[in-house]
């Protein structure tokens, strides 16, 4: 039997709110608040491992997501370690890291992984958007949104609906939606 809903495992309520908005009317979404251990590795390896851990814990189908912020001048670091960089250095510190470089461009990368259960291989959906790192503007309530500028606006200044149409997360979920449209999961709604 195909699952009738997606179970998004995340400890981040801001991510959850965006995923709820983007998937609204597409597929029923439930969520469990778990902060899963994250390995070191490539973006793909981290998401695959996170998904397998979640499926083993929940003993059922799960959707997980990992977000990276990759500075091009830093050859894509901090990447998956952005959470710890942000927590330690703050918005100003992220800007200071790039002071010595002319290239302030950065890629926001969102990688969803879905699997049907502990015995199944996860499927990956990635979304990527290029912007630049700027001094903070707008509300500081979601991660690095205030220092990531895309098309003249930081994500924090941007209307939520607009962010959720064009963001790294929207691009990744666009791929997930296409996959759902061709799968039993989408038909089971
Ligand atoms: O439980 P999980 O889903 O892992 O939630 P998390 O908050 O630990 O998230 P990550 O491990 O993916 O770390 C990504 C970091 O980037 C931040 N972040 C994620 N998506 C973002 C977005 O769209 N805009 C700004 N910051 C974001 C988030 O707050 C973290 O500090
Ligand atoms: Mg995390």
TrEMBL record:
Catalysed reactions listed for this entry: ITP + H2O = IMP + diphosphate + H(+); dITP + H2O = dIMP + diphosphate + H(+); XTP + H2O = XMP + diphosphate + H(+); N(6)-hydroxy-dATP + H2O = N(6)-hydroxy-dAMP + diphosphate + H(+)
Listed cofactors: Mg(2+); Mn(2+)
Entry's localization field: Cytoplasm; Nucleus
EC number: 3.6.1.66
InterPro entries for this protein: ITPase, ITPase-like_fam, RdgB/HAM1
GO cellular component: cytoplasm; nucleus
Cofactor detail note: Binds 1 divalent metal cation per subunit; can use either Mg(2+) or Mn(2+).
Residue sites binding Mg(2+) per the record: 38, 66
Binding site for ITP: 10-15, 50, 66-67, 142-145, 163, 168-169
Domain of life, per lineage: Eukaryota
Record Gene3D superfamilies: 3.90.950.10
Keywords, comma-separated and alphabetical: Cytoplasm, Hydrolase, Magnesium, Manganese, Metal-binding, Nucleotide metabolism, Nucleotide-binding, Nucleus
Annotated GO biological process: deoxyribonucleoside triphosphate catabolic process; nucleotide metabolic process
A molecular-function term among this protein's GO annotations: XTP diphosphatase activity
Purpose: Pyrophosphatase that hydrolyzes the non-canonical purine nucleotides inosine triphosphate (ITP), deoxyinosine triphosphate (dITP) as well as 2'-deoxy-N-6-hydroxylaminopurine triphosphate (dHAPTP) and xanthosine 5'-triphosphate (XTP) to their respective monophosphate derivatives. The enzyme does not distinguish between the deoxy- and ribose forms. Probably excludes non-canonical purines from RNA and DNA precursor pools, thus preventing their incorporation into RNA and DNA and avoiding chromosomal lesions. Pyrophosphatase that hydrolyzes non-canonical purine nucleotides such as inosine triphosphate (ITP), deoxyinosine triphosphate (dITP) or xanthosine 5'-triphosphate (XTP) to their respective monophosphate derivatives. The enzyme does not distinguish between the deoxy- and ribose forms. Probably excludes non-canonical purines from RNA and DNA precursor pools, thus preventing their incorporation into RNA and DNA and avoiding chromosomal lesions.
Subunit annotation: Homodimer.
HAMAP family: HAM1_NTPase
The family this protein is said to belong to: Belongs to the HAM1 NTPase family.
Protein name: Inosine triphosphate pyrophosphatase
Organism of provenance: Heterodermia speciosa
Chain's gene name: HAM1
């Amino acid at each position: 039997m195909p699952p009738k809903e997606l179970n998004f495992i995340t400890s981040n309520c801001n991510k959850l709110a965006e995923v709820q908005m983007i998937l609204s009317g597409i597929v029923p979404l439930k969520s469990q608040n778990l902060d899963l251990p994250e390995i070191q590795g490539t973006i793909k390896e981290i998401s695959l491992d996170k998904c397998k851990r979640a499926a083993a814990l929940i003993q059922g189908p799960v959707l997980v997501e990992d977000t990276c912020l990759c500075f091009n001048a830093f050859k894509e670091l901090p990447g998956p370690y952005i959470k710890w960089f942000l927590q330690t250095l703050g918005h100003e510190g992220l800007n200071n890291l790039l002071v010595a470089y002319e290239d302030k461009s950065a890629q926001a990368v969102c990688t969803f992984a879905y699997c049907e259960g502990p015995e199944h291989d996860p499927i990956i959906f990635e979304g990527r958007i290029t912007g630049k790192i700027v001094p903070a503007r707008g509300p500081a309530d979601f991660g690095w949104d205030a220092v990531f500028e895309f098309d003249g606006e930081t994500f924090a200044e941007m209307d939520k609906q607009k962010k959720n149409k064009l963001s790294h997360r929207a691009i990744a979920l666009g791929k997930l939606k296409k996959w759902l449209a061709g799968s039993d999961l989408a038909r089971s709604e």
